[in-house]
Amino acid sequence: MSWPHVDYDTDLWMRIPNSWAGTPWKGPKEWGRYMSDAWWGDTDLEPTRKDVKGLAATLRACAERFPESHPGFDVYLHLPDPRVMPLPVYVASVEADGEREETLRALVTTDDTALVEKPIVEDFTTEALGTGLRSLRYTQTAGDRTIVAGVRYAWRHEAAGCDVVVIVAAPDPRRVLGAMDDIDAFVGWISVRADG
């Protein structure tokens, strides 16, 4: 089965490595430090040592925790400004199974008991993947009843025999909604090779 490739904008996005083997970093701590230095260095801002260390610690925590939310997915972080919280975007492909429309609808909505209201589902087209579905959904956590905003995308790639899935969610609806244009552009860069 083929795996999605994302030709993403490195001024807005970074990818958390799936494995530290073969990378220049020993693990999340070193990666976080390196990416913090790079992100602050690419701005016109004058960060303090505390700013740089703070982002490094945040990125380390992201690298340690976010991959556990959706195992087997690639994790990208939306970070247009080093002063905001990184927003995780999960990308994967799953083996195509079942009728296209029904399967894609299930991938973007799911029967989530925590849904606050019915998700808004609409067609979403990219040049590389064609027409799929995008949903905007709100759920509520069980404990403190925090509202979590989420966006899901799904496409069927017939030639590769897979469904491409993108998941975004955060307990800050303004952060998710404010990033929608960038997320839509990001998924527009996703492609899948039919030969794997």
How would you briefly describe this protein structure?
With 196 residues, this protein is an alpha+beta fold.
Quick tags:
single chain; 196 residues; alpha+beta; 9 strands; globular; two-stranded antiparallel sheet; 30% helix; seven-stranded antiparallel beta sheet
Task: Describe the protein's topology.
Elements: E1 5-6, E2 13-16, H1 28-41, H2 49-69, E3 74-78, E4 87-95, H3 100-109, E5 120-126, E6 130-140, E7 147-157, E8 162-170, H4 173-178, H5 180-187, E9 190-191
Antiparallel strand pairs: 1-9, 2-3, 3-4, 4-8, 5-6, 6-7, 7-8
Helix pairs in contact: 1-2
Give a verbal description of the structure:
The mean pLDDT is 94. Strand 7 (147-157) and strand 8 form a beta hairpin. The protein is globular and about 55 Å long. It has five helices and nine strands, in the order E-E-H-H-E-E-H-E-E-E-E-H-H-E. The N and C termini lie close together (6 Å). Helix content is 30%, strand content 31%. With 196 residues, it is α+β, with helices and mostly antiparallel strands. The strands form two sheets. A seven-stranded antiparallel beta sheet has the order 2-3-4-8-7-6-5, with helices on both faces.
